[in-house]
Every structure is written in C-alpha cells, then in structure tokens.
Amino acid sequence: MQPFLHGRLQSLERLLARASEVLAKYNRLDLDLAPALTGFLDDAIATQRALQRGPAENELLALKAQFVAAEHGVHPVTLERATGHRRELVRGVALRVLQQSAEQLRNDIARDRQRLDEASVQLRPIVLLAFRQGLITSRTRRPMSNARLETLWRDLLREPDVALAARQLAMQLSLHDILLLLADLVDASQQISA
Quick check: helix, strand or coil at residue 3? Predict the structure, then answer.
C-alpha cells in the first residue's frame, strides 16, 4: 500500500517549522534551547514512527543520542569527557543536530513534492481525455464531491484509452493522493473553460 503523501507532507512541513523555531532559539542564545531541541527531536521521532519510516526514525534517534551525550559532558564523536567549555560543546552539537535533522526533513519534503508533481503531470492527459469523453463537464462551477471523484477515477480505470496510464498511476500513489490531485486538475480545467 502506498503512503498518503499529502498527509506525510503536512507532518514533515510541521516538523520543519518546529525545527526553524528551535533554530531561532539557538540564534537568540535562549537558555531553553536544550528542552526545546529535545522536545523537537521527540516529536520528530514519534512522527517518523507513526509514518512507519524506520530509517528516518533511526537517524533522529542517533542525533538525539549525540545531543544527550553532549549534555552529559561527553563529546559525541571522540567519546571523551569534555573538560571545559561544556556549554559550547552542547551548543555546537545542538546546531549540528538541528542542521542535519532539518536537512533530512527538507530532502524528504522535496522528494514527496516531486513525486506528487510527477503524478500530476501523468494525470493531466487523463483528465483532458475525461473532458473529451464527457466524463467531466465544464459547466459545473463548484468543486466535485469526493464520491463523484471516486466514481470518475473508477470510470477512468475502465476507460480503454487511459486505463493503462491510470493503473500505472494507481500503483505509484495512494487513492487519496490521486483523488486530491484529480480534484485540483478538474477544478483548474473547469476554471479555464469558464
């Protein structure tokens, strides 16, 4: 079963916004940086676990372990006890942890957006054919209901001219992602023809 990319994107974008908030605390030299970073990492780990993304969860757990080690006065790379400037060690590790986790989130977001964009490109000719075949009319000014979108998608899967392309798309994305993309394209097409 394919993951629901729109939902995952919302979760990852929320985490990225939270990472930005923690980075702002770092930049302001806020004293509550450590609990804010720990809270962000805990949230990110739980989110990745809920999304069933084991490798991403593991990477975040490793980053958290590095930060915890620094908080306890142990350099996470050399594993030697820090003798002085412990606060600088903690802040340095915090910055590295924030940078790496934010980079992971940005890459994941970009990858998911790219998949949705590619699917949208694949869906455009299918929608145009649906207009040509009369499966969609340009007279409707209001958005299609979810039930109507599902019926349209089932009809497109049976339509001989596009069945193969529609089935290929169905193997790449979840039904909910397809319906959201389909709704966007149908709405855009109807506004153009209005």
Answer: coil
pTM of the model: 0.89
- Under DSSP, the state recorded for 136 is S
Q: Flag whether pLDDT at 193 surpasses 90.
A: no
* Nearest CA among 93, 95, 85, 87 for reference residue 24: 95
Q: Within a 13 Å sphere around the CA of 161, how many CA atoms are in the beta-carbon half? A: 10
pLDDT single digits (tens) 14-66: 999 999 999 999 999 999 999 999 999 999 999 999 999 999 999 999 999 99
C-alpha distances out from residue 6 to 10, 20, 59, Å: 6, 21, 23
> What's 50-93 look like in SS3?
HCCCHHHHHHHHHHHHHHHHHHCCECCCCCCECCCCHHHHHHHH
**pLDDT category, 139, cuts 50, 70, 90?**
low
Percent of the chain with pLDDT over 90: 77
The residue with tokens 């908030």 is: 21
Place of tokens 């080690």: 69
Long-range pairs for 164-167: beta carbons < 8 A, 24 or more residues apart: 165/122, 165/125, 165/126, 166/126
Neighbours of 189 (CB within 10 A): 17
Task: State mean pLDDT over 96-124.
Answer: 97
- Which residue type sits at 7? G
